[in-house]
Specification:
The chain is an alpha+beta fold. It is built from 15 helices and 42 strands.
Amino acid sequence: MINKMSSIKDTCVTISDFSHPSLRSGSYNLTLNQSIETQEDEDKKTYCKTFNLTVVGERLSLNPDSIHSFFPPLPNGEFEGVLPHVLLNSTTLPWERTSLPATHPKHEKAPWLAILTFNNDEAPEIQHVKFHDLVESGTDIVFEGERIPGTRPLNCFSYPDLVLEANERPDTPCCVIDIPKDVFLRIAPKADDLPLLGVVKDEKTTNCQDQDKDCYTCSVIQGQRIPKIQTLTHCHLVMLENMGAYLPNNNESDPFPTETTHVRLVTLWHWSFSINGRENVLGKILKNLDVGPLQISGNFQSPKPDEVEKAIERQQQGQSTDQDADILTRNALNMGYIPMNHQLRSGGNTVSWCRSPLVPYFINQGVTSVLPFSDSDVAVQYDPRTGMFDVSYGLAWQLGQLMSRCNNSIAKAIYTWRRNIKRNAALTREQKEFNDNILGVNFASDLFMKRFYAAAKLEKSLSEEVIKWLCELRLLHHVPFHYLVPDERMLPEESMRVFHLDSNWIYALIDGAVSLGRVNSAEEDRSQGFFQSLLDTIENGCKEVRKNEKPLTKHFNISGRITGFLLRSQAVSGWKKLKAFGYEDFTENQEVPILRFTVSDNDDIMLCLFDGDVNRIVIQESGSELHCGIDYNTDLKAYTTTLRRLYCSHRDGSICLDYDKPRVSCHNPCPVGCLEPGTSLLDKEVVVSMRDDNQTIRVKETVDVILQELHQLNHVPSDFEFTSAHFFIEFTEGAVTGVYNNVSKNECNGGV
């Protein structure tokens, strides 16, 4: 059974109840029979060959790469009512082994993995043991002809009929937890619960972070116990292979041998978290973000324009006061500048202004008329009104040259390109002189024609590799982060900083990068117009850098501006697949394409660039990070969940039919207007049946209540089979969204 959820913008999340492997893990005997009968020999000859086949799978341990993520992702936060889960990169892993006996009607759909959630006072200690510690004392393990005794205590029950597999030894290490029997029977899933606690999740999106693929598929092991408030919660992904007969049952009888006091289980992954008042839940994190322009944050007030003009006027007249200096300093900081120590080439020291390409105001493109620069000093600006240098563009030029020098292949390609241009120019001049002076001399004609053809073969344009690298440079790829945020105070923790991209800074960066091997003067290069042509190529090419670019045919960047934001928050490290959207208008109708959307190496900073002037920014939880949970209803004094549609239905509540069958998802346009699976029925809450601890859900009993409600609402057909996919949809918490207005909208000409 497959269901779809489309409540997340530009995302289609498909939930399937299971994904069976072609063969389960284990040993197989493959027998081949062949019969041959010929005309010469009337007797039929039969040949038989038997092969031993072993399907090796993970069991006593998991490769860390098998774990995609887990929830809750943070060590503390307001996670009341959530159901922990683990996402696995393999879609078949949970069903590669069996947990329930073959006599159980749903043993094929039951995963062999489960999540057990412990309160701090219940949490068992993790022990590092060997395989023989899982085998009962008095039972031997046969390995390579030898008998090795098991060492598990008699009072500690573990996996029945456990035998070595092909890739295991008696001393194979594993991690186990010894759970008191009464705790295990209180928190472990029942046999009827297990088939409802594993799903396959597939997400397709056109607006994820920059990567080669724009889709994701994983399996999910879902917990059934909510954490306790004001205490540390421990979660373990455990192996339940062949443990079906010893899981809690409906008649609450004890399935274990009389002497059992503990249950020993292999733990494959574990993490812990706590519920507290630090508001580390995604919705509150996004709500409490400090949003502002990218500038040094401080307890100072931005000066008014008339105050700045008067302060500059008094400074020019030599009548500047301390108050004027304070106004000018605050004005520079407000424009994104920071003061930096500057050692002059003459040996002197001074303080100069510097800013990154990410600025709090739009800056007019004025530098292209003077590009290219002959060196970095030419790009340094001096303001006689303040007596200070602005080294921003000189720094960018020097950085570009250093970056290209550090990349051997790029440096060689640029140098060769420069030399080819020079050689071609020289050969062209020689050819002209030949035509003018010695035309008709046979021996000279042959010589110079060969040189002319050699010149024609020279590559006079930059290679695709270099163009791609320069396009990435246009979008700040490869640029060290401290050049983008030169002072940590500009991007404090739990903040979003919006900015305009200063194209002048970027063009100076590119000019420095392609300056290697320059043989003409900068003035000659400028007069030939090659640099402007290169910039035009880069401007067009940078829109192709993003792998999974979302096509927006109606959008055209008339202004030529690039805006964006930097997000520094635990939301980035905890929710690694956040999505971002930018809009020209506040009604969120005119979407702006994303040019770059990446997360830094330290995983708590996100950078996004938009191809246009953005007025509204939306941050949204990814479909792959949706989680299940329940809410406490104070009026009912019970936990509840809001009903969700499981079929496509019309807005009047009737099921959408396709060839007399209810639609799982509307693939074709519906004239009436369909509500997709996962849409909430906001006025319908179902009381969740809980065990005596008021933390562990009685899954099967709750499902029966949900089914009864859906039947009464005529939202499912009479023969409907409720699967794990439906369970996941019914308990899914809504996607969290943060909406922010761009506060970086003022115009500026770039002067300090």
